[in-house]
Amino acid sequence: MEQAWFNAILYGWLPGTIIGCLGGIIGTAAGVLAPRGKARRFVLSLQLSAIVISAAFLAAGVAALAASQPYAVWYSLLLPGIGGSVLFCALFPLLRRSYAQAEMRKSKAADL
């Protein structure tokens, strides 16, 4: 077996923590700002950065699995990679739709 890339006991929690914190920040920002139509570029940029980071963890997890790394190494990379990729990619269209609805409400209110 190959040498482990990192000590999974010490650092195995880090990828999940990063994805979890990003999810909390994006969820809070989206929940507060999207229905009001505010800070669209900021919120969507956060969402896209979370997708990229999740995809990087997913790629690292697949590489670790292919390199025969110990279970704790590839699992701690693959789990937040898969979870984050699925979650953030699935929520991106909903977030864009929320901003579109807010824009529609603003235009209807301006017409009245």
Summarize the structure.
The protein is an all-alpha fold and 112 residues long. Helix content is 82%, strand content 0%.
What would you note in describing this structure?
With 112 residues, the chain is an all-alpha fold. It has one domain. Helix content is 82%, strand content 0%. The protein is built from four helices and no strands. α3 packs antiparallel against α4. The longest helix has 41 residues. The relative contact order is 0.18. The mean pLDDT is 91.
Topology:
Layout: H1 8-11, H2 14-33, H3 40-66, H4 71-111
Helix pairs in contact: 2-3, 2-4, 3-4
| Total strand segments | 0
Helix content: over 70%
Oligomer: single chain
Number of domains: 1
In one word, what is the shape? Answer: elongated
Provide a count of the helices.
Answer: 4
Our Rg estimate from Cα atoms comes to: 18 Å
Largest sheet: none
Order of helices and strands: HHHH
- Binned strand content: under 5%
First and last CA, distance: 70 Å
The parts where pLDDT drops under 50 for at least 5 residues are none
Mean pLDDT: 91
Structural class: mainly alpha
Which labels suit this protein?
single chain, 112 residues, mainly alpha, elongated
